[in-house]
């Protein structure tokens, strides 16, 4: 049996059944790779993949073959041979792998990426309160991290979440970059991390805000950058998420920190939804799609920074939004010169 046939024919459910494991109605089960009291292993039947979300587990993310490899504590080739036997009713089957070919890495399925990002973000959220400098930074910006989904990336997480399949996935999604001399440089080191979500409220990307001065900010270990803002490649998702379809009044701000500041104001959140742009030029197609899909929208309030770039962007975005939504009132907030939402709250 060829490798491709195994990948196509063997389902994750077949593997689970072989080991006497049965997921619940949410496709979760107690993880067999660590002592688990509450179901932390999520199954993704559509892609035949799985992920353990427990920070106490090193299993990470994988497919049906990798599940067998971990369960049997065997080599990749032995796991493939076992998989072939499962397909053939537990009868031994000869495995044919073309000369020079390699076992393919975990495919970049959407569900698998969500699982990896969710697991890593959970680790970041636990790390934030343990880092005095990150807590001090947020307090200095008047941000109560306990009121938000936020984490901290110290840059050393891959030494603790070091399961090979998980690390490989993190390389694939741009979270880690191998160094020529060994080891990794990490994306958004020394950054406060915020989740970017899709319409279903799932984490599909991350944003990093450096807590260092611009001259010291790093996108990866040893890589100096002037930027304080870090996004994963092929940026997608919105912060704090897609506005509710019941939204009537929507405030657009220039940055995620500004959005977090407004979200702490109960008097504002009771009347308005808040949505962050990604900088002055960051009104993306995804933003437009989310905004134009709001059936009850009556007013959009642009609240960008009170500087030259913010002023220009306000006029640009107001015109674009009015063209798309002529029935919606487009307004703006006038902040003191040189200030932004975070600095005035």
What does this structure look like?
- The chain is of the alpha+beta class and 345 residues long.
- The protein has 3 domains: 3-87, Zinc finger, CHC2-typedomain (DNA Primase, Chain A, Alpha-Beta Complex); 110-231, DNA primase, catalytic core, N-terminal domain (DNA primase DNAg catalytic core, N-terminal domain); 249-344, Dna Topoisomerase Vi A Subunit, Chain: A, domain 2 (3-Layer(aba) Sandwich), CATH 3.40.1360.10.
- Helix content is 32%, strand content 18%.
- The protein has helices spanning 3-9, 12-18, 64-72, 76-87, 110-127, 132-140, 164-172, 256-263, 266-269, 285-292, 308-324, 341-344; strands at 28-29, 41-44, 49-52, 61-63, 151-153, 176-178, 184-186, 191-197, 203-210, 218-220, 223-224, 229-231, 249-253, 273-276, 299-303, 329-332.
- The protein has a 4-stranded antiparallel beta sheet. A 4-stranded antiparallel beta sheet has the order 5-8-9-12, with helices on one face. Strands 14-13-15-16 form a 4-stranded parallel beta sheet, with helices on both faces.
- Helix 3 packs across helix 4 (76-87).
- The longest helix is centred in the middle third of the chain and has 18 residues, at 110-127.
- The model is unreliable at 91-109 and 221-226 (pLDDT under 50).
């Amino acid at each position: 049996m060829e490798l491709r046939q195994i990948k196509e024919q063997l389902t994750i459910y077949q593997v689970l059944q072989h080991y006497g494991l049965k997921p619940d109605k949410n496709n979760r089960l107690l993880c067999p790779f660590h002592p688990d009291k509450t179901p932390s292993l999520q199954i993704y039947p559509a892609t035949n993949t799985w992920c353990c979300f427990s920070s106490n587990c090193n299993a990470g993310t994988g497919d049906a073959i990798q599940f067998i490899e971990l369960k049997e504590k065997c080599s990749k080739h032995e796991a493939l041979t076992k998989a072939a036997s499962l397909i053939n009713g537990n009868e031994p089957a000869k495995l044919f792998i073309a000369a020079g070919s390699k076992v393919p890495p975990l495919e970049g399925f959407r569900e698998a990426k969500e699982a990896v990002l969710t697991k890593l973000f959970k680790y970041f959220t636990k790390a934030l309160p343990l880092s005095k400098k990150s807590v001090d930074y947020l307090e200095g910006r008047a941000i109560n991290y306990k009121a938000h989904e936020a984490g901290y990336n110290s840059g050393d997480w891959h030494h603790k979440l070091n399961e090979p399949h998980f690390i490989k996935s993190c390389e694939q999604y741009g979270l880690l970059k191998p160094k020529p001399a060994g080891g990794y440089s990490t994306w958004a080191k020394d950054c406060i991390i915020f989740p970017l979500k899709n319409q279903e409220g799932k984490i599909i990307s991350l944003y990093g805000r450096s807590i260092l001065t611009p001259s010291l900010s790093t996108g990866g270990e040893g890589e100096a950058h002037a930027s304080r803002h870090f996004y994963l490649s092929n940026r997608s998702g919105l912060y704090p998420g897609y506005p509710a379809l019941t939204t009537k009044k929507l405030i657009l701000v220039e940055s995620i920190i500004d959005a977090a500041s407004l979200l702490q104001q109960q008097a504002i959140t009771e009347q308005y939804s808040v949505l962050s742009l990604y900088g002055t030029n960051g009104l993306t197609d995804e933003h437009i799609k989310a905004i134009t899909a709001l059936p009850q929208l009556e007013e959009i309030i642009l609240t960008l920074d009170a500087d030259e770039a913010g002023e220009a962007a306000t006029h640009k975005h107001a015109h674009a939004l009015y063209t798309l939504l002529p029935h919606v009132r487009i307004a703006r907030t006038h902040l003191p010169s040189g200030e932004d939402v975070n600095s005035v709250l």
